[in-house]
Amino acid sequence: MISLDTFFFILASGILLGGLYALMATGLAVVWTTLGVFNFAHGTFVALGAYVAWQVTQSIGGGAGFLLAAALSVIVMFGIGFVLHYVLVKPFERNTNLVLLAVITTLAAASIIENGILIGWGPRDKQITPPIEGSVGFFGASINLYDIVILLVALLTLLALALFLRRTSLGRAMRAAAQNREAAELMGLNVSMLFAITIGLSAATAALAGVFTGSLRFISPTFGADPLMKALVVVILGGVARFTSPIYAAFIVGIAESFSAYFLGLYWAPAVLFAMMIAVLLIKPEGLFGHRSKTL
Amino acid sequence: MSTPLLELRNLGGGYPPISVFRNISLSIGNRESVGFFGPNGHGKTTLLKTVAGLLDPWEGDILFAGTRLNAEGRMRARTSRNLNYDLFRRRRIRAETVVRAGLIYVMQGNLLFPEMTVEEVLDIAPRAAEGRQGVAEMRLLVDDLFPRLCERRDSKIRYLSGGERQMVSIAVGLLALPRMLILDEPTLGLSPKLRIELSQAVRRIRESNVPLVIVDQNVEFLTSLVDRLFLFDHGSITREIDAGSMPSHDEIMTMMFGETL
Lengths: 296, 261
Ligand SMILES: Nc1ncnc2c1ncn2[C@@H]1O[C@H](COP(=O)(O)OP(=O)(O)O)[C@@H](O)[C@H]1O
Ligand SMILES: [Mg+2]
Description:
Number of helices of chain B: 9
Number of domains of chain A: 1
Oligomer: heterodimer
Structural class of chain B: alpha/beta
Order of helices and strands of chain A: HHHHEEHHHHHHH
Largest sheet of chain B: 6 strands, mixed
Distance between the termini of chain B: 40 Å
Strand content of chain B: 15-25%
Bound molecules: adenosine-5'-diphosphate, magnesium ion
Largest interface: A-B, 21 and 30 residues
Number of helices of chain A: 11
Strand content of chain A: under 5%
Radius of gyration of chain A: 19 Å
Shape of chain A: globular
Number of strands of chain A: 2
Shape of chain B: globular
Strand order of the largest sheet of chain B: 6-7-8-3-9-10
CATH topology of chain B: Rossmann fold
Largest sheet of chain A: 2 strands, antiparallel
Structural class of chain A: mainly alpha
Number of strands of chain B: 10
C-alpha cells in the first residue's frame, strides 16, 4: 500500500485536475444544453486560449504579465466564440440535420484552429511561467500554492457563471432561449445573439482552463485534444441535468485519473476513465446526477 | 379610413412542403378586436404563427401600423440538390421585429420555460417593451388579473397547472406592452372553473383597451367580446360577420357545415 502522505498528494492532484476539468466541461455542457449542439472545437478553444496567453507573457513578464495574459485570453476567446456561432451554427439552424451539420462544422473549425496554431506559433512546445511559487502542507503532503489558487479561481469562475445565469436579466434570457426557443423569440429576445453569447462564455471559460493548464504542462498545437476528451467523458459521466452535474463529475474524473495514473500507470488512466464512462452509459445513460431532461 | 393597425395582404404559408393557408387578406382597425372561429386543424394557429414571425410566409405581406414586417423574397425551395444554400433571398420574417413593433402573440398551449420560476419569467418579459413607458402599470394590472401567479411566483413553470401556465403566457404577452395582442385558444383544455376565470381575465384585458385578435372554440364568448368575427375553414376566411349581426352558435354551425348537421 501507499503511505498516507502519498495518498493525500494523489488526492490533491486529482482535485486540482477536477477543477480544471470542471472549467472545461461546464462550457461544453452549457453549449450543449443551450444550442443542442456538441462543440468539437471546444478543445481547441482551450489550446488557443493558452497560446494567446503565452504570447502576452512573452512581452510582459511577471505576475502582472500573467494576469494581463489571462484577462486578454479570456476576452479574445469570448469574441472568437461569439463570432463562431454565426459561422458554425447559425447558417444551419433551420436545417433538420442541425446536430449532424454542427458536428461537421465544429470539427472543421477544430482542424482549422489547430493548423492555424501550427502555422502561427510553430510545432515547438511552449510553457507559460506560473506566476506563484511556494507550497503548503496538506496532511503531510506538500501542495503547490499555485494549484490551490487555480482550484479556487476555477470554482469562483463557475460560481460567478451560475449566478450570472440565475440572477441577471441577460443570464435569465439565455436560459429562456435554451429552454424554449420559440417562446423566447415570442418575447422579443434576440435568440441568435443569446446563443452567440453562450458560445462566447463557453470559449472564455475554456480559455481560462487553457491558461492554467498551459502553465502546468507544455503547450503544443494538439494541446486541445486531451481537454476535449476529458470534457466529453465528464459531460457523459455527470449528465447535464443541472449546472452542477458536470462539476461533480469533473472531480470524480480528476480523482479517478490521478489514482489510476499512480497505480496503473499514465497510459492506463484514459482506459479507466472510458471504462467508467461506458459503465455509466450502460447503467444510467442520462448521467450520474439528475434526470433525463436537459436544463440550464 | 386611417391606416389599419394590422393588415394581411394575400398571405399564404404552411409547413414546407404542405401549404396550410392561402389568400388571407384582412385589415384590422386601430381600436378594433376580432375573433377567429373554425374547426380544429384548419390552420388558424399556423396563420397566427406566421403573423408572429415564427414561420416564414410563402407569399403575401404582413403590415403592422403601416410598416411591412416581412422581408421581400421568395419562399424557400431547394433549387439545387447539391448546394446547401438557397441562391435567392427568402421571404423572411423575424419574431423579434414583430414583437418590437408591438404585435404580441400568445401561443396556443405554450409550454414556456420549464426550469424557470414564474418570477424569473415575468422579470425578463418586459425586455420586449424596451424603452417604452408603462411596464410598472402593466405589472399592476397583471398582478390584479392573476393573483394566483403572485402565490406561485417561486414555483418552476414545470410544476404549474395548464391554467396557471396559460396565465403566465398571457402575463408575458401583456408585459411586452402590446399594441395588439393575439390570443390563440386561451381557454383550451381547462377545467370549467379556470375557463371562466381566464375568460373574465380576457374580457378585462379587452376593457383595458388592448385590441385583441382571439381564437376560441366558444362562439358565445367570442361574439360577446369582439367587433368582428372571421369564420376560418380549410385554410381561408370563408365569412366575415360584423358585431351588429352576431349569430348564435347554431347559426354559425349551419353557416360553416350546412344544414345537414
Ligand atoms: N409543426 C407542424 N408541422 C407540420 N404540420 C403541422 C405542424 N403543426 C400543425 N400542422 C398541421 O397544420 C394544419 C393546421 O394546424 P393548426 O394551424 O394547428 O390548426 P388550428 O389552429 O386551426 O387547429 C394541421 O393539419 C396540422 O396537422
Ligand atoms: Mg390552433
